Structures are given as C-alpha cells and as structure tokens.
C-alpha cells in the first residue's frame, strides 16, 4: 500500500499507467493535492474541500474494499469528521461500518459512458432547429429547460469550464438544451469534453431531439480535437442509456455514490 500527499501524483500516475482509466484521466488534476492510497489494482483518492473530504475509488472491488476499510480505521483513530461524498465501484457493497465512520448513506447508482467516434449527423424533426447557445444571453432559457426537465443536474451554461452548449428550438421557443464542459485528455495537452445537462421539454419528447442534441454536441467536440467525449447518467435511466448507445457511447464505469442523508443533488 502506498500513501502520502507529497507523492500523490506519482501514485496516481503509476495506477493510470497500469490501468488507463479515462474517468480518472479526465479529472486527474482535481486530485493533485489529494491523499492517495493504492493496493491490489485499486486506488482511493481523498480530497479535502475545506467543507469535508471527497473520496473517489476505482479499480478492483476487493482492493477498493480493503482501502476503504483502512481509511475507516485511520479516520476512527484520529477522530476525523464526516466525509462529504464517496464514489465507489457498483460491484462493491460498501460495509455499513465504513459508511458509519464516513457518516454517509447511499445516494445513487450511475454510469460513465464515452466515445471517440463521431455519431451520424443528427436528423431533426420537422420545424426543429439546432443552434449554439451564447453563454450569457441564452443561459436563463437553458436553466429554465433544466429546471423543468432535469432538476438534479449540476450543469450551468455559465460555469467556468463550459466548452459549448447546443439548444433545440421549435417555433422560436427553446425546447431542449445540452452542454459540455472541458476536461483533461491524453498526455500533457490533450483534452476531452464531458456532456451534461440534457433537457428536452415534455411536450416535444419522443421526436428525437435528445438524440440530435447528443450527436451534434459529440461531433462538435471531436471536431474541436477532443480525445474522447464522455457523459454520466443515473443507472436506472434505461431510456437515456439506449439513446447514448445508439449514438455510439459505451459504458466505461459503473459506480455508486454515497452522500449525507440530506443530499438532494450529486456533488460535482
């Protein structure tokens, strides 16, 4: 087992060299100051946000279980406070004793999907047009679409890392929106896009607008040079999974998240 803040980058770099993991590659700078432990083809990253620790674990479920047990013992011995969030492989049932120490409860099951192949050009229903959304002028309308259709989303068209947003319009009305934030990719200069905030108004669902927005945004990102395009979805959302599979996305991670009992939205 390896640990320590000072060598966190080396620990993560070694893990990624042995286990190329696009989910961690995309967010690797988020963990530069993390405390990282690794064992048995698994890694546990613990980041202090100032409001509580965020824990991310990846790799072999048994190895993750061992790392979480060790983390719980460490936190118990030093009287560490409650954690803010934990994400772990869905194949692992995190023991109740560990969750008691972290003071977390199950929040959601989610999948991380990705593609590096451009989908077919979107086919639009009659009367529907797609256009890029401008950051400030179009943000209120996009937020309203998300409020009505995807209230648990943390996406924000004016967020600091936003790369691009598409909107779908019908009769001059914004009826759908989807955005992408820029994340890391391969090597020192590579980048990827993570799609988030898909929303289509209820009265126009079933027309293929969600699929058209997904295809357009993925094609835009790959044309801009992204190494891959990723997105996340709640595991129970079978309709969204079918939509994304038809657009060429494959599952890269199956995860389970744990948060405070009062949590109503996922932690970003």
TrEMBL record:
Residues 128-268 form the N-acetyltransferase domain. Pfam families: Acetyltransf_1. It comes from the Bacteria. Gene3D superfamilies: 3.40.630.30. One of its GO terms (molecular function) is acyltransferase activity, transferring groups other than amino-acyl groups. InterPro entries: Acyl_CoA_acyltransferase, GNAT_dom. PANTHER family: N-ACETYLTRANSFERASE (PTHR43072). This is N-acetyltransferase domain-containing protein. It comes from Serinibacter arcticus.
